[in-house]
Amino acid sequence: MDRQLLSRNSHLQKSTTSKTASAFGPIDDHKNWPIFLLNQVSVFLSGQKILSDLNLKIHRGDFVFISGPTGAGKTTLLRFLYGELPSYRGEYLAQMNHQNHSQGKELFLARIYQDLKVFHDRSLKDNLMLAYDPSVYQSRAEFLEQAIDYCQLFNMEKDFHRSLDHLSGGGRQKVAIIRTLLGRPDILIADEPTSNLDRQSSIKLFEVLSHLNQKKRMTVIWATHNYEFVRNFSGRLIQMEQGKFVYQM
User: Fold this and answer.
1) Residue 11 class from Cβ within 10 Å (0-12 exposed, 13-18 middle, 19+ buried)?
2) 29: pLDDT strictly greater than 90
3) What SS3 state is found at 188?
4) Which listed residue, of 18, 143, 165, 218, carries a Cα 20 to 30 Å from 91's Cα?
5) Side by side, which strands form the sheet with 187-191?
6) Residue 122 pLDDT exceeds 60
7) Cα dihedral 125/131/136/138 (nearest 10)
8) How many CB atoms lie under 10 A from the CB of residue 105?
9) Helix or strand or coil: residue 64?
10) For residue 37, what pLDDT is reported?
11) CATH number, domain at 119?
12) Is the pLDDT of residue 28 over 80?
């Protein structure tokens, strides 16, 4: 699992314009402070503009769907939010920690890749153990208990000790999802997390993430090309085409 610690100032990037982060106005609302703020941001890769004039505000506890066809720029946007694409113009602020709100605890961001990054020759359990963090769990036993709970939710408990070689693409995707959730992230970036899942498993994933969003205030940013699927769920919706936002609600 790719687990990234993001503190209040660790992801504060300087604008290439003369303006500063203060252009966004005050960000001291403890109940709903923003995590990501983009103002007329364009993102570049190898000198080529790939995202254009993006305006976006995501708060703690938001559930955001980013929809659009293949090549619309969804994955690029997620990579930018994750901090992998530092070349941009415009105003950008990622404010990941607020001492008065999170009681001094920094927020953790994790993501589910399109490339699942699982070990096919290891067991499901071994793959999940990669997410074990003694600073998050009181004990290994507590971690394994939650791992089994998630496996049961996704009908994977029978495969707990089996190699991933025996699983379908959908099964391996479930392993990647469970492993990420076991990290107990505060912010989850998911890039096409249902691409290999059947409809029932996709609905189950939404139900699980919706529960974590409502009960734990986990912020979810979910990119998908399947607009017809996500339009049935509650959450903010952003549609992208050719590196631009064409619709936000």
Assistant:
1) buried
2) no
3) strand
4) 218
5) 2-6, 107-112, 187-191, 219-224, 63-67, 236-241, 244-248
6) yes
7) 20
8) 10
9) strand
10) 94
11) 3.40.50.300
12) no
Mean pLDDT along residues 124-134: 96
pLDDT tens digits for 37-50?
Answer: 999 999 999 999 99
Q: Write a three-state SS string for 119-186.
A: CCCCEHHHHHHCCCCCCCCCCHHHHHHHHHHHHHHCCCHHHCCCEHHHCCHHHHHHHHHHHHHCCCCC
Matching residue, tokens 């990054």: 117
Q: How many whole angstroms separate alpha carbon 39 and alpha carbon 24?
A: 8
Q: Which two tokens stand for residue 67?
A: 């929809």
Domain that holds residue 168: 2-248
pLDDT in tens, 212-245: 999 999 999 999 988 877 777 888 999 999 999 9
Q: What is the DSSP string of 7-57?
A: -TTTT----SSS--GGGG-----TTS-EEEEEEEEEEEETTEEEEEEEEEE
Instruction: At 112, list the tokens.
Output: 């589910």
**Rounded Cα distance, 145 and 235, in Å:** 30
What's the structural domain count of the chain? 1
- What predicted TM-score, i.e. pTM, was given to this entire model? 0.83
Number of residues that this document lists for the chain: 249
